[in-house]
Amino acid sequence: MTTVAVPLDDYPRLGQPSGRVWQRLRHNRAGLFGFAVVVFFGLIATGVASGLLGQEWATVTGEPWEPAGADHWFGTNLLGQDIFHRTVHSVRVAFEIGLTVALFSTAAGALTGAWSGWHADTWADGLLVFITGVLDSIPFYLFVAAVAFALKGSPWSMQIAMVATFWTTTSRLIRAEVMRLKSRDFVQVALAMGLPTRTVLLRHVLPNTGHIVLAQSAIVFVAAIKTEVILSFLGLGVHDGVSWGIMLAESTQEILAGQFNGLLASSAALFLLLLGFNLMIDALQDAFDPRQEAA
C-alpha cells in the first residue's frame, strides 16, 4: 500500500477569512456604520497625534463658562479652556490606551492560552488555569484600581493594571480553541511528518485562532477605554493630560453651577465611540460565527 503525503497547505485554515465572511460583513449595515464611526474617531486621533487638532486643550482661550458659539463650539469650562479642544484631544488618549492595552493583553492571552491548550491536563496547564481563576474571582474594578494605585508613580500604571486583568479571558478562549484544533487531521499530519511542536503550534494552530484574537482585541479596546474613564474619574488614571474621565470629574462641580457643556461633550463622544465599536464587534462575531455557514 502506497502512502501519499498531503501538503500541509491543502489542509483548511479554520481562522482564515473567506468570501462568505466578507459578504456577511459587507451586508451588515449596523456593522458598517460602526466601522465608519471607529474610522472617524481614528482619523481624529491621528490628527491630534500629528499636531493638527486639539492642541489648545490646556490653553485659556476665553472667559469662564462661555456658551457654545462660533469661537468655542462647545463653550468653555471654569478656567476658560475650550471644551471642544479638550474633547478632541481626549480621543487620542482613548486610542493610545485602548490600542496599548488591546495589543499587549491580547498577545499575552493568546500565547499563554495556546501553550496551555497544547499542554492541556499537565501540571503547568493546571497552574495557569488556577491563576486565571484566581484573577477572575477578584472584583474587576477593585483589582484594577488597586494595581493602578500601587503603581501610581509609574506613567504606565493604568495600562499595566489593565493588561494584568484583561489577558485572562483571551487566554481561556484560545486555550479551548487550541485543545479543539490539536486533534484535527492537519495538525496530526504535521506532527507525523516530524515537524517540531513549536512550529506546528505557531504556524498551523495559532493562526487558526485569528478570528478569536481579532474579536477579543476589539472587545478589550472598548473595555480599556471604559476602564480609563472610570479610573481617571476616580483620580487613578490620566494625570499629565486630559481625558473624558477627567472631563467628567470636572463636570461634577460645573453641574452644581448649571453648566453642562463639559458633561455633554465628553459623554457624547464616549457614547459614540463605544457604540461604533460595539456594532463593529457584533458584526465581526456574526461574520466569523461558523454556525452562519449552515444557515
Descriptive account of the structure:
The structure is a single chain. With 295 residues, this protein is mostly helical. It has a domain at 60-79 and 92-266: MetI-like fold (Orthogonal Bundle). 67% of the residues lie in helices and 0% in strands. The chain is built from 11 helices and no strands. It has helices spanning 19-26, 29-49, 83-118, 123-137, 140-150, 157-181, 185-192, 197-205, 210-233, 244-256, 261-288. Helix 1 (19-26) runs antiparallel to helix 11 (261-288), helix 5 crosses helix 6 (157-181) and helix 6 (157-181) packs antiparallel against helix 9 (210-233). The longest helix has 36 residues, at 83-118. 40% of the residues are buried. Residues 1-17 have low confidence and may be disordered.
The low-confidence runs, each spanning 5 or more residues with pLDDT under 50, are 1-17
CATH class of the domain at 60-79 and 92-266: Mainly Alpha
The largest pleated sheet is described as:
none
Number of strands: 0
Mean pLDDT reading: 82
First-to-last CA distance: 41 Å
Structure characteristics:
295 residues, mainly alpha, MetI-like fold, 0% strand, disordered N terminus
How would you concisely characterize the structure shown here?
This protein is mainly alpha-helical. The chain has 11 helices and no strands.
Task: Please write out the topology.
Blueprint: H1 19-26, H2 29-49, H3 83-118, H4 123-137, H5 140-150, H6 157-181, H7 185-192, H8 197-205, H9 210-233, H10 244-256, H11 261-288
